[in-house]
Amino acid sequence: MTAGTSLTPGTLNPGTLNPGTPETPGTTTAEHELAALQREHGGPLFALLLRLCDGDRQRAEDLVQETLVRAWQHPEALHADGFDSVRPWLLTVARRLAIDARRARRARPAEIGDEVPEDARVTADHAERSTAMLDVRQAVKTLTPEHRDVLILVYFRGASVTEAARTLGIPPGTVKSRAYYALRALRRVLPGYAADLR
Protein backbone atom coordinates (compact mmCIF):
# COMPACT_ATOMS: atom_id res chain seq x y z
CA MET A 1 0.00 0.00 0.00
CA THR A 2 1.41 3.40 -0.80
CA ALA A 3 0.95 6.90 0.46
CA GLY A 4 -2.47 8.23 -0.31
CA THR A 5 -4.20 4.99 0.62
CA SER A 6 -7.39 5.41 2.56
CA LEU A 7 -8.89 2.84 4.85
CA THR A 8 -12.28 4.46 5.23
CA PRO A 9 -15.11 2.16 4.24
CA GLY A 10 -16.81 2.85 0.97
CA THR A 11 -13.97 4.66 -0.80
CA LEU A 12 -11.87 2.43 -3.00
CA ASN A 13 -8.52 3.89 -3.91
CA PRO A 14 -7.31 2.82 -7.36
CA GLY A 15 -4.19 0.70 -7.13
CA THR A 16 -4.80 -0.29 -3.54
CA LEU A 17 -6.05 -3.73 -4.26
CA ASN A 18 -4.47 -6.12 -6.66
CA PRO A 19 -6.21 -5.88 -10.01
CA GLY A 20 -8.57 -8.73 -10.48
CA THR A 21 -9.12 -9.32 -6.77
CA PRO A 22 -12.81 -10.10 -6.57
CA GLU A 23 -14.77 -8.41 -3.85
CA THR A 24 -16.36 -10.93 -1.55
CA PRO A 25 -19.98 -10.17 -0.80
CA GLY A 26 -20.43 -8.80 2.71
CA THR A 27 -16.93 -7.31 3.03
CA THR A 28 -16.18 -3.61 3.06
CA THR A 29 -13.57 -1.75 1.10
CA ALA A 30 -11.63 -1.15 4.33
CA GLU A 31 -11.36 -4.91 4.87
CA HIS A 32 -9.97 -5.36 1.35
CA GLU A 33 -7.52 -2.51 1.84
CA LEU A 34 -6.41 -3.97 5.17
CA ALA A 35 -5.96 -7.36 3.52
CA ALA A 36 -3.88 -5.70 0.80
CA LEU A 37 -1.82 -3.95 3.46
CA GLN A 38 -1.17 -7.29 5.14
CA ARG A 39 -0.23 -8.98 1.85
CA GLU A 40 2.20 -6.22 0.95
CA HIS A 41 3.82 -5.60 4.35
CA GLY A 42 2.92 -8.64 6.47
CA GLY A 43 6.10 -10.59 5.65
CA PRO A 44 8.58 -7.87 6.65
CA LEU A 45 6.48 -7.03 9.73
CA PHE A 46 6.45 -10.66 10.82
CA ALA A 47 10.20 -11.07 10.24
CA LEU A 48 10.98 -8.01 12.37
CA LEU A 49 8.61 -9.01 15.15
CA LEU A 50 9.85 -12.60 15.19
CA ARG A 51 13.36 -11.29 15.90
CA LEU A 52 12.07 -8.87 18.54
CA CYS A 53 10.03 -11.64 20.21
CA ASP A 54 13.01 -14.00 20.45
CA GLY A 55 11.50 -16.47 18.00
CA ASP A 56 8.06 -16.68 19.62
CA ARG A 57 5.87 -17.09 16.52
CA GLN A 58 2.56 -16.73 18.35
CA ARG A 59 3.56 -13.46 19.97
CA ALA A 60 4.95 -12.16 16.66
CA GLU A 61 1.70 -13.02 14.87
CA ASP A 62 -0.31 -11.28 17.57
CA LEU A 63 1.82 -8.16 17.24
CA VAL A 64 1.48 -8.16 13.43
CA GLN A 65 -2.28 -8.16 13.89
CA GLU A 66 -2.06 -5.40 16.51
CA THR A 67 0.07 -3.34 14.12
CA LEU A 68 -2.54 -3.71 11.40
CA VAL A 69 -5.27 -2.74 13.86
CA ARG A 70 -3.29 0.43 14.61
CA ALA A 71 -3.06 1.13 10.87
CA TRP A 72 -6.82 0.70 10.59
CA GLN A 73 -7.35 3.02 13.60
CA HIS A 74 -5.04 5.71 12.16
CA PRO A 75 -5.69 5.96 8.42
CA GLU A 76 -4.29 9.53 8.45
CA ALA A 77 -0.81 8.10 9.02
CA LEU A 78 -1.14 5.95 5.94
CA HIS A 79 -1.81 8.79 3.53
CA ALA A 80 0.69 11.36 4.74
CA ASP A 81 2.15 13.20 1.75
CA GLY A 82 5.78 13.03 2.93
CA PHE A 83 6.15 9.24 2.57
CA ASP A 84 6.54 7.05 -0.49
CA SER A 85 5.57 3.95 1.48
CA VAL A 86 3.77 3.17 4.71
CA ARG A 87 6.26 0.41 5.56
CA PRO A 88 8.51 2.62 7.75
CA TRP A 89 5.48 3.74 9.75
CA LEU A 90 4.26 0.14 10.13
CA LEU A 91 7.72 -1.10 11.18
CA THR A 92 8.01 1.68 13.75
CA VAL A 93 4.60 0.88 15.20
CA ALA A 94 5.45 -2.84 15.28
CA ARG A 95 8.78 -2.20 17.02
CA ARG A 96 7.12 -0.01 19.66
CA LEU A 97 4.41 -2.59 20.27
CA ALA A 98 7.07 -5.30 20.72
CA ILE A 99 8.97 -3.12 23.21
CA ASP A 100 5.76 -2.38 25.14
CA ALA A 101 4.89 -6.10 25.23
CA ARG A 102 8.37 -6.98 26.53
CA ARG A 103 8.15 -4.31 29.24
CA ALA A 104 4.72 -5.55 30.28
CA ARG A 105 6.03 -9.13 30.59
CA ARG A 106 8.97 -7.97 32.71
CA ALA A 107 6.73 -5.88 34.96
CA ARG A 108 4.55 -8.86 35.84
CA PRO A 109 5.88 -11.30 38.42
CA ALA A 110 6.79 -14.72 37.11
CA GLU A 111 3.91 -17.16 37.16
CA ILE A 112 4.37 -20.30 39.19
CA GLY A 113 2.09 -23.22 39.74
CA ASP A 114 1.04 -24.89 42.96
CA GLU A 115 4.36 -26.64 43.47
CA VAL A 116 6.99 -25.10 45.74
CA PRO A 117 10.31 -24.41 43.99
CA GLU A 118 13.20 -26.52 45.28
CA ASP A 119 15.30 -23.50 46.18
CA ALA A 120 12.48 -21.79 48.11
CA ARG A 121 13.57 -20.83 51.58
CA VAL A 122 11.48 -22.41 54.30
CA THR A 123 10.73 -19.95 57.06
CA ALA A 124 9.94 -20.97 60.59
CA ASP A 125 6.53 -20.19 61.93
CA HIS A 126 5.95 -17.99 64.97
CA ALA A 127 5.95 -20.92 67.43
CA GLU A 128 9.30 -22.22 66.16
CA ARG A 129 10.86 -18.75 66.36
CA SER A 130 9.56 -18.28 69.90
CA THR A 131 10.95 -21.65 70.97
CA ALA A 132 14.32 -20.85 69.40
CA MET A 133 14.44 -17.48 71.20
CA LEU A 134 13.76 -19.16 74.54
CA ASP A 135 16.45 -21.77 73.88
CA VAL A 136 19.00 -19.08 72.99
CA ARG A 137 18.12 -17.00 76.06
CA GLN A 138 18.60 -20.01 78.31
CA ALA A 139 21.92 -20.84 76.63
CA VAL A 140 23.20 -17.25 76.94
CA LYS A 141 22.46 -17.36 80.68
CA THR A 142 24.91 -20.27 81.00
CA LEU A 143 27.81 -18.11 79.71
CA THR A 144 30.22 -16.29 82.02
CA PRO A 145 29.29 -12.63 82.56
CA GLU A 146 32.33 -11.45 80.49
CA HIS A 147 31.38 -13.63 77.51
CA ARG A 148 27.69 -12.76 77.85
CA ASP A 149 28.37 -8.98 77.85
CA VAL A 150 30.47 -9.20 74.67
CA LEU A 151 27.93 -11.43 72.92
CA ILE A 152 25.02 -9.16 73.79
CA LEU A 153 26.82 -6.03 72.62
CA VAL A 154 28.27 -7.42 69.40
CA TYR A 155 25.60 -9.87 68.20
CA PHE A 156 22.34 -8.73 69.72
CA ARG A 157 22.81 -4.96 69.82
CA GLY A 158 24.93 -4.75 66.66
CA ALA A 159 27.89 -2.87 68.15
CA SER A 160 31.21 -2.98 66.34
CA VAL A 161 34.26 -4.55 68.02
CA THR A 162 35.66 -1.07 68.67
CA GLU A 163 32.40 0.18 70.19
CA ALA A 164 32.11 -2.90 72.41
CA ALA A 165 35.73 -2.52 73.53
CA ARG A 166 35.13 1.13 74.41
CA THR A 167 31.88 0.33 76.28
CA LEU A 168 33.41 -2.54 78.27
CA GLY A 169 36.78 -0.85 78.76
CA ILE A 170 38.77 -3.75 77.29
CA PRO A 171 41.04 -4.05 74.22
CA PRO A 172 39.43 -4.94 70.83
CA GLY A 173 41.42 -8.19 70.67
CA THR A 174 39.84 -9.30 73.94
CA VAL A 175 36.38 -8.53 72.52
CA LYS A 176 37.11 -10.74 69.51
CA SER A 177 38.47 -13.52 71.69
CA ARG A 178 35.53 -13.46 74.10
CA ALA A 179 33.04 -13.41 71.20
CA TYR A 180 34.75 -16.44 69.64
CA TYR A 181 34.71 -18.45 72.88
CA ALA A 182 31.14 -17.38 73.67
CA LEU A 183 29.91 -18.69 70.29
CA ARG A 184 31.89 -21.90 70.76
CA ALA A 185 30.22 -22.42 74.15
CA LEU A 186 26.79 -21.75 72.63
CA ARG A 187 27.43 -24.34 69.91
CA ARG A 188 28.04 -26.95 72.59
CA VAL A 189 24.91 -25.98 74.54
CA LEU A 190 22.71 -25.64 71.41
CA PRO A 191 23.80 -28.51 69.09
CA GLY A 192 20.66 -28.22 66.90
CA TYR A 193 21.45 -24.57 66.12
CA ALA A 194 25.15 -25.02 65.26
CA ALA A 195 24.65 -23.98 61.61
CA ASP A 196 22.99 -20.71 62.71
CA LEU A 197 25.86 -19.77 65.03
CA ARG A 198 28.58 -19.35 62.42
Provide a compact summary of the structure:
The chain is about 60% helix and about 0% strand. The protein is mainly alpha-helical and about 200 residues long.
Describe the structure.
The chain is mainly α and 198 residues long. It is built from eight helices and no strands. Helix 1 packs across helix 2 (57-73). The longest helix has 24 residues, at 29-52. The model is unreliable at 1-23 (pLDDT under 50).
Topology overview:
Layout: H1 29-52, H2 57-73, H3 75-78, H4 87-107, H5 126-141, H6 145-156, H7 161-168, H8 172-189
Radius of gyration of CA atoms, rounded to a whole number: 36 Å
- Which blocks of ≥5 consecutive residues have pLDDT under 50? 1-23
Q: Which structural class matches the secondary elements?
A: mainly alpha
Give the helix level as a range of percent. 55-70%
Form type: rod-shaped
